[in-house]
Amino acid sequence: MMSDWTDSGSKHYRAETDWLKIREKWTKEQQGIKTKGVLGNARFEKMIDRVRSKLCELGVNPEFMGFYFAYAEALYKSQIEMGWMVDRVREHQILRDRWETRGLDPLILDELDKILIFNKTAP
Questions:
Q1: Whether the predicted pLDDT of 73 surpasses 90
Q2: How far apart, in whole angstroms, are the C-alpha atoms of residue 49 and residue 114?
Q3: pTM attached to this predicted model
């Protein structure tokens, strides 16, 4: 014989995992999810293209471009994910310190910052 809490828990689980309801919910949300993904990917690709053209303009050796792309991706991601300005500023300083100690040129990073820092206001 099941106790009351086990019985109510199993009923709750069955109600939450009704596959017809889940499929209906996913079908409704699927188009929005795809749209957000396409827009996010387009923004990311545009950012990578801008960084690539700036690195070529500055004459960066192609062997080192991957490191600058990694910095650009980390900075771009931090601006999107962090809601507070103080967090974005702190994360930027952490990223700069990390990548400068790895040997990246601070002057090139300054040029990339001009391109990459787009979120200059608090939410």
A1: yes
A2: 15
A3: 0.69
CA atoms within 13 A on the CB side of 121: 1
Q: How far apart are CA 73 and CA 7, in angstroms?
A: 49
Q: Which domains does the chain have, with CATH numbers?
A: 19-116 (1.20.58)
**Sequential DSSP letters for 51-102:** HHHHHHHHT--HHHHHHHHHHHHHHHHHHHH--SHHHHHHHHHHHHHHHHHT
Mean pLDDT of 73-102: 89
Integer angstrom CA distances of residue 41 from 45, 48, 83: 6, 10, 20
The C-alpha angle 98, 100, 114, rounded to 5 degrees, equals 100
Distance from C-alpha of 56 to C-alpha of 101, rounded to nearest angstrom: 23
Mean pLDDT value of segment 107-115:
92
